[in-house]
Structure formats: structure tokens, C-alpha cells
Amino acid sequence: MGTTLTYQNSIPEEIQNGVRECLLSFSAKSSILLSKNTEIKIHRTIILPLVLYWCETWSLALREERRLRMFENGVLRRIFGPKRDEVPGEWRKLHSEELSDLYWSPNIIQLIKSRRMSWEWHVAHMGERRGVYSVLVGKPE
After folding, report:
1. What pLDDT is attached to residue 31?
2. Domain extent at residue 54
3. In-domain check, residue 125
4. How confident is the model at residue 25 (pLDDT cuts 50, 70, 90)?
């Protein structure tokens, strides 16, 4: 997949590329009938790693966070399907709160933040001789 570094430290293109790749892989499997458990496993093992490729270096603006949450909720809505309301008897899309009740794993933003913290801890313990450390502390040569 690759990554693009810019002077503005802006990552919308990275998110757009990851989301596009995942939508392609998710739509390719949509013609196959799978159980919800299998689809959740596919989401965790294939889709999330594709979207979150090199997310440790991202600095997310609220717009990108919102786009990632919308993407994740869209994938989860495809997995869990619509819900039938009891009173009117009509089908409707699941609300975000209902999705978080059904999918009990951390959301995509929490995953990104935990991966960034893990990466920062790892780089901080590399020592001053490493180039990545000097970039982390803001003193590149």
C-alpha cells in the first residue's frame, strides 16, 4: 500500500486510500454468504489492518476521525444488517449506539490512539542514536 509523507502532516489521502482498499476487499466478499462471526473476524483481521496501515504516524483532525468512524459504522451496518422496529414494523439502519452494543471491541479511533501510544513508547526507548527518536522529540538533523 505505501504511505505518503508531507510537510503539512496531513493524512486525508492515506485514510482515503485505506478506506478505498477496504471497501474493495469488503465488496468482493459480499457475494459470499458468511456468518456474522466470520464477517467480524474478517473485519478484525483484514479490513482494520488495511485501513490502519502505518496509522501510528497519523495526526488526526476531527474531520478524519469522523470519516473513519463513518467508515467503520458502515462496515458494521453491512455485517449486522438492518433492524426491524416492533411498533411500525419497518426495517431501519442500526444507530451508532446500537452498533457499539453489538460490536464490543474498541472503535477505530481508540485503536489508532493505542497504536500511536505503543509506537511512541517503543521509539522513546530506542535511544538518542536512532534517527526515529530524534524525529519523535522534534530535533531532526
Report:
1. 58
2. 12-84+91-108
3. no
4. low
| Pair 96, 56: CB distance under 8 Å | no
Residue range 118-141, pLDDT digits in tens: 888 888 787 777 777 777 676 656
Nearest residue to 54 via CA among 119, 134, 126, 9 = 119
Task: Kindly tell me if the per-residue pLDDT of 78 is higher than 90.
Answer: no
Q: Residue 21: which of 53, 44, 45 has the closest Cα?
A: 53
- CA dihedral 1→22→38→100, nearest 10 degrees, is 120
Q: Name the residue among 2, 15, 9, 45 with its Cα closest to residue 109.
A: 15
Sign of CA dihedral 35, 40, 44, 48: positive
- Among all chains, which residue has been given the C-alpha cell 488526526? 60
C-alpha cell, 4: 505518503
Residue 123, domain member (yes or no): no
Rg, the chain, Cα only? 18
Q: How many structural domains compose the chain? A: 1
| Total-model pTM | 0.75
- Bridge partners, residue 31, by sequence: none
For 30, residues 6+ apart whose C-beta sits below 8 A from its C-beta are 78
